[in-house]
TrEMBL record:
Family the entry assigns: Belongs to the class-I aminoacyl-tRNA synthetase family.
UniProt organism field: Bradyrhizobium manausense
Keywords (A to Z) from UniProt: Aminoacyl-tRNA synthetase, ATP-binding, Ligase, Nucleotide-binding, Protein biosynthesis
GO molecular function per UniProt: ATP binding; methionine-tRNA ligase activity
GO process annotations (BP): methionyl-tRNA aminoacylation
Protein name per its UniProtKB record: Methionine--tRNA ligase
Domain Methionyl/Leucyl tRNA synthetase intervals: 118-473
Record's keyword annotation contains Transport: no
Gene3D superfamilies: HUPs, Jelly Rolls, Methionyl-tRNA synthetase, Zn-domain
InterPro entries associated with the record: Cupin_2 (IPR013096), Met-tRNA_ligase_1 (IPR023458), Methionyl/Leucyl_tRNA_Synth (IPR015413), MetRS_Zn (IPR029038), RmlC-like_jellyroll (IPR014710), RmlC_Cupin_sf (IPR011051), Rossmann-like_a/b/a_fold (IPR014729)
GO cellular component: cytosol
Domain of life where this protein originates: Bacteria
Ranges for domain Cupin type-2: 18-84
Amino acid sequence: MKKLRDNVATRHFNASKFSLERGESTTFDCHADHEMLFVFSGVGEVTYGDGTLSTEQLTPGDMILMPPFAAHLIENTGAQTLVMGNVWWEDRQTIDERVKAPKCERRPRVVLPSFTTPNGRMHLGHLAGPVVAADIFTRAQRALGFDCYQLCGSLGFQTHVGITAAREGRSYRETSRTYSDDFLANYRLLKIDFDVFATLDELPRFEEIAREFLTALDAGGHLIEKTTRVPYCEHGHGYLFEANVRGLCPHCGEKISSECENCGLFVPDEELVDPVCNHCHRAAAWRPLKRMFVPLEPHRVVLERLLMSGAYVGKMPDFVAKVLQQKLPNIPLGISSSEGVALPFRGQEDLKLYSAVELVPRFLTAQDMLASSTELGSGEVELALFFGSDNAYLRCIIFPILLHLFDASRFHIVGFFANEFYQLDGYKLSTSRGHVIYADDLIRQGIPADWLRLYVCHTRPAVAATSFSLGEAFDWIERRRRRLASVIQIISNAVETHHRGTVPEPGTWERLHRAFYQQLCERRHEGRRLFSVEGFEPRQIAELIDRLLRDLDRFAVESLHSRYHPGIERAACALSLVGLRLWATLGWPVMPELCTAVLARLGSRETPCLNRALQWVPAGRSFDIGGWAA
Ligand SMILES: [Zn+2]
Ligand SMILES: [Zn+2]
């Protein structure tokens, strides 16, 4: 026997003893090992879970077991030192099971792509960023059997829209409506299947929800009142916020308006360097302004939990970790602007709700519209966000904390999907410089909407900027369209020539058939992973659809011809049709119209489902592709 003083490492496990002083806590930890924890002395709390977190008391003698991938944090809440021991070990079988089936809850899912600012037409950059990816995600969740809803819109107030309205000689409402109509036209063109499209027509509901939200923040003791200096134009343009001011970022020195697209960090009004009025282009002065603020710092644990839950994707975990290295800022509730929701606080009525804070009431309004048009009650929902990385601070930092302060239990954010810029011929898209391309132009030039969706999915700027070029897009799409048409032609000829136009029973299987069947099972499995919230990756989905089409092409060409035994050809024919059916099922979230048409010709008319095993096309039905054009 040996009395243990230090850390222990054996072949099967490790062990150690540690202590936390009063008020001290561990950082969140989340690992593949099993961990057993023991409380020797002192009291505290453990916060733990996979996705949703719970908290429990710790007292001397307690013994707790953390399964793999349960995030956990221990805090000393007592007056004495909290002394604990732990033992950890690896159990590969449990790890594999947890990785395969990460969650068993099936709460409804709500998808929220950032509302596009209604101050210009929707161009290909918007579509290739949040719009198409959010739609693919929504449809993919439905194919996995989830109740999934998509909330879109243009609701809200931003000074950028006011500036466009003044330039175009229209009212704010008219400007917002004109561009919202353009967004809707684009959504219809690209088959975006949204459940709600919230616009300023919902203003009364929006104002009521915004007031309710602000009152709840106030009642919860989450607001402070503070006077800070604010850029001010002494030449008649008053207090300068958002699109009315420019200057240098205090963090990275980049030329910015009020938000920094370069480093993505929050710029408090009083810290903007060398502010200039955007109306008269003269240096701004500073004036004190008394406002209400929400301090984010007391709620950093909300972000730490999300970080540990794996909800941040791509470059976002590093971004959030970088933000968390410093004290979180106070976010002002109001700015001075001619348009917006007036703050419901005494002495603040002249100020309008700041757009960063407005994100929550915008979402709650769309959610309320959804609840009144669907079966969705007031139960818990999982929320997936799609946004450009220039909105990372708003979406990853401000939105989750403010939503949590309003309702800590109902909304579970399960995915933060960001995108970088989508360029045109290697340069940033810019409406003002005319370097821009619209979906309707491309469709008019002969690219069908479904294939455009596949192409922007294939070139999605998930972690780095990518570029669109018309020539490349045409070639890429043309090759795939021809391949699909050829595959369908080969299968159809086989059905026609050997089976008088009806689908045969699968006959005699050779090695080639078994290998193809196995390949299809693997592709289906891979599709389920890429469609899931944990594995969602549009570029890989596009690649999978492409790969499956090549597999199918190769198999059909190699195996669909007369053989010494007619049963062998029958098996090849039936398997080719299974492959085509799987292709259309996996392709449906990306290319809904085309795949729905293919599935209909294979006799399947319901929403494609990826939860069932591979489906045969029923023997005896006709496979008629007369008049078909992919
Ligand atoms: Zn910056
Ligand atoms: Zn000015």
